[in-house]
Write a structure and sequence with these properties.
single chain, Rossmann fold, eight-stranded mixed beta sheet, 11 helices, disordered N terminus, NAD(P)-dependent_oxidoreduct, NAD-dependent epimerase/dehydratase domain-containing protein, aldehyde dehydrogenase (NAD+) activity, NAD(P)-bd_dom_sf
């Protein structure tokens, strides 16, 4: 049976919202919106359904890798938050294609992407108009997701916002294990600029994008910090009374880290958050990493 909405998208007295990929950030969004929205949250794990219920969402068991399980999501809500990552292999994001295949016309969708789509920018200040240049397979899939979503939005008359996100941190999302193991960081001469957002501020940014987006617009969810990566590790170490990591030149460090970590360590950019503040009106709860660690 098709759900009918009034002009504000209300059903059963509250606006309906569908969250696809309701992990840590999704739960923070639920905490911000519970009571004001009827929130449906998709999970692939039956054992997480009670956690979602306790948070204030209506859990739905579905799998983005199995399109037949998605049909029931089609008419649930006029607003969708797509927080699910692509599948771990290939050049296209099949999961995002499966999502858009079942969504009705004139949906409002916020997609959480990654700043990795820019590749290495040599430490340059980057705004949302910079062309993408992904350097690893994960970022290539994210670029594909963004492009397929833009094409879907044009076809369906839907409103799309893409939120590009750098390193997410929170009290329970810090590189403490890395520091305890003494994994080295880059020497100062070789170090890269890195960008951060507190998980609570990311949740608030996604909600702001949902409410205030300009259609087909990209936004950076990033704080005001201007840090190099090893300085971030030092700050976390100091806050938790752990030894600062040793620093190694680039050629020596590459032999000691995984290829995925090496990719992360060799991309340098500084993201502008002007649109975040002027268009979405977000006031950061944690303007810098130092504020978050405090």
């Amino acid at each position: 049976m098709q759900t009918h909405y009034n002009h504000a998208g209300h059903a059963l007295g509250k606006p309906r919202l569908l969250i696809i990929g309701c992990g840590d950030v999704g739960l923070r969004i639920v905490a911000l919106l519970r009571g004001r929205y009827r929130i449906f949250a998709v999970t692939t794990q039956r054992e997480r359904m009670q956690t979602l219920r306790d948070a204030g969402a209506i859990p739905l068991l579905a799998d983005l890798d199995r399109p037949a399980t998605l049909a029931r999501l089609a008419q649930l809500a006029p607003t969708v938050l797509h927080l699910a990552p692509p599948q771990p292999e290939g050049a296209i994001d099949r999961r995002t294609r499966h999502v858009t295949a079942i969504l009705p016309e004139r949906t409002t969708l916020v997609y959480v992407s990654t700043s990795g789509v820019y590749g290495d920018c040599g430490g340059a200040l980057v705004d949302e108009t910079r062309p993408v240049q992904p350097r690893n397979a994960r970022a290539v899939r994210r670029v594909d997701a963004e492009r397929s979503l833009r094409a879907w939005a044009r076809r369906s008359g839907s409103r799309l916002a893409i939120v590009r996100v750098p390193g997410i941190y929170a009290g329970d999302r810090l590189p403490l294990e890395r520091l305890q193991k003494g994994i080295p960081a880059l020497a100062e001469a070789d170090d890269v600029h890195t960008n951060h957002i507190h998980a609570d501020d990311l949740a608030r940014t996604v909600v702001a994008a949902m409410r205030r987006l300009q259609p087909q617009r990209i936004y950076h969810a990033v704080d005001d910090s201007d840090m190099k990566m090893a300085d971030y590790f030092d700050a976390v170490a100091d806050a938790h009374r752990l030894p600062r990591p040793p620093r190694l030149p680039r050629d020596q460090l590459q032999a000691q880290v995984t290829p995925a970590m090496w990719s992360f360590l060799t991309e340098s950019r500084r993201l502008s958050n002007r649109r975040l503040k002027t268009e979405l009106g977000v006031r950061l709860q944690y303007p810098t990493v130092a504020d978050g660690l405090a």
